[in-house]
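Supplementary notes for students who missed Thursday's class. We covered one full example, reproduced here. Read the sequence, then the structure, then the short commentary at the end.
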Amino acid sequence: MNKLKVILITGASVVLMMSCFPKASKVIQSLPVESKEQIMAQYSSAQLEEGRTIFTNSCDNCHKLKEPGSKTPEQWNKTVKRMIPRAKLSDEQGKLVRAYLIANSKES
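Structure (token representation):
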């Protein structure tokens, strides 16, 4: 009986802890990896500049910023999807940051 209680308490604790970690919204998680060309066709230079500003102001709070050219579009897509909820960015802000980083990323 005690083993069962320990197992149940442990299981409940794990579930509770998992629910505390922020997760990106379904909108952000569903974004495909896009090329620089696709991003440039979808976003204006003003939107990309706004993405740069959000990136600089939000991401620099927790760690040193990486240069956009340090990663490929695929790598930035994965990183941004993971970091948007941690930075407490809205979906729109996250999309702009992602667009800025991919537009200025290194070639795949």
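Commentary. Helices lie at 2-20, 26-29, 36-42, 45-59, 73-86, 91-103. The chain has a mean pLDDT of 85. If anything here is unclear, bring it to office hours.
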